[in-house]
Amino acid sequence: MPFKMGGEIPMGRVKLPEPLTSDYLIPSTVVARKEFTNFEDGLGGWSLTKDTNVIIAGLSDVAISGSRSFMMQGKSGVTIPYAGYVGATLYKTIDLTYITKLSFKYRMVTSGNYARLSVKVDDTEVWGVDSESASTSTTTITIDLSSYTGVHSIKFEYIFRTGDATAVWFNIDDISLTNNNPASNAIDNNPSTFFVPLTADAGEWIYIDLRTPTIVGGARIYWGSNVPNAYRIQASLDATNWTDVYQATSPPATNDWTEYSWYATYARYLRIYIDDSGGVAPEIGEFHYYSLLIGRVAAEHGHGSGVEKWKKGTGVRRGFKVKELLNEKIKGKKKKQHLSKDDIIELIEEILNYIEFQIND
Questions:
Q1: The model's pTM
Q2: CATH code linked to domain 21-35+182-291
Q3: Contacts of 347 (CB under 8 A, 6+ apart)
Q4: What are the φ/ψ torsions at residue 272 (nearest 5 degrees)?
Q5: How far apart are CA 100 and CA 330, in angstroms?
Q6: 37-179 shares the fold of 21-35+182-291
Q7: Where exactly are the structural domains of the chain?
Q8: What is the CATH number of domain 37-179?
Q9: Which of 120, 196, 259, 345 has the greatest number of beta carbons closer than 10 A?
Q10: pLDDT tens-digit profile of 239-271?
Q11: Inter-residue long-range contacts of 243-252, CB under 8 Å, 24+ positions, other chains counted
């Protein structure tokens, strides 16, 4: 039944009319949990092994101690078994299919031809420097990883070049891996480009910013070849506190659009949250949302009839008598006199009642 003035107001039970493809909106801002990894949050998935003859400053064996940089030093006066002995290894095992580059900064704190800092992919050195001259400034290094696919191990190794360990310091800072499939790919209106998180871990997410609190009642997502087994769509006003608006416990269709609907929700942010990736990082080609002004006003004031099904076709749109209803509302108003807030709310209620009549007809 249509909503009656003065009757009980059903809260949070408004669904927007079924959208056309052209009704979906493309956001201009997007944020993902992991587009690159660095030392801002502990080791960020990096691990460390070291010999007792090596000192690690600013970094324990499992976590950073309040710093994004650390130093690797050989203990002075200790005999190393042989030249080329690896005293410490900082490493990360990761799928490089979607990684374009490794970047970091280093500085040689003390000099002496006793040690080498080496970067390896698996066991092949891709960059290295010997401890021959100290410097007071850092050097930025970028290594191209675009030719690698599949899972590999990236290693920073502190290697002794002579049999006598000497106090040679290497300072390493700002280690980062850059994703070849950034979050911006999910809002570029091109389903053939994808956002892919750096890991297949549960808890990866990507959210869109609608720029202002908005009533949203649906979304559509283009999924690629790799899709999650379970995921959620969530809404938020502050990008901190999230509410589930849709939950999926089975995979979506691959290489195709999937449309989602829920009761109209007031939100600024929409997020895809991965509960189970299925062992591979999911591919998200596009993430669009659906909003209507009428739905926004209705949801803000708690009006609606609880209609749960959208009517197929465009009959609902043809049934909007907005102009007619508006003309009726402004009859008797003085010239240049604006509609009051209550007038506008009542007008929206009449429009909604007419829409619901069309839907239920």
A1: 0.55
A2: 2.60.120.260
A3: 325, 326, 329, 339
A4: -95, 120
A5: 61
A6: yes
A7: 21-35+182-291, 37-179
A8: 2.60.120.200
A9: 196
A10: 999 999 999 999 999 999 999 999 888 899 999
A11: 246/219, 251/227, 251/278, 252/221, 252/223, 252/227, 252/228
